[in-house]
Amino acid sequence: MAAAFEKRFGVRHLSSGDLLREALRRGDSLGKEAARWMKSGALVPDQLVTDLIGDHLDHLGPTADFVLDGFPRTAEQARALDRRLSSGGHVPIDRAIRFEVSMETIVNRLAGRRVCRQCGANYHVVTLPPRRSGVCDSCGGILEIRGDDQPETVRRRVEVYQDQIQPLEAYYEAQGKLRELSGESSVEKQVNGLVAL
Ligand code: AMP
User: Fold this and answer.
1) Are 33 and 60 in contact (CB under 8 A)?
2) Which are the contacts of 107, defined by CB distance < 8 A and separation ≥ 6?
3) C-alpha 173 to ligand 1 mean position (Å)
4) Closest ligand 1 atom to Cα of 42
């Protein structure tokens, strides 16, 4: 969804999960460290992911507009992000969006998700199939099921999310930045919904 938003408005989309998987594919030390937690569906340590996102934001430069996807996931990450944005002279966070989605939708989406092994592009067997089954439209890479999309790991990821979400929401609520959107509709409707917030 954030990727569709990026396409339409030209703002940069930074997904913490994508950046971690990229580091893993490159085989660098950060990727290897993160994999220890990602495999089981646990969160990687706050410091690691905050530094990773912070470095990418610095690279974009202080005036860039951006959408963060999957980050921050804890109140500590949100506080660290604000500190990093202000010390780097970046634009501050404008809105935090909570997408309301049923458990059934989450499971269906993740069960059908396929990811390119080479470039990380995302597909869905029903809602966003590639032109050739099992092959990435963009780079011709092989599509695979993400290791942490197995049902057992998905359950763990949802539990972890539910543990962390309340303090995170409270952080943005207190700043008057929290908004809600239904995540059940089509990507296009969600992008339109975001624009209206
Ligand atoms: P995602 O692609 O957002 O579903 O993230 C996949 C996995 O990467 C998560 O289950 C975590 O292990 C890790 N991860 C992604 N973003 C974060 C974050 N902000 N904080 C901690 N761990 C993260």
Assistant:
1) no
2) 151, 154
3) 22
4) 12
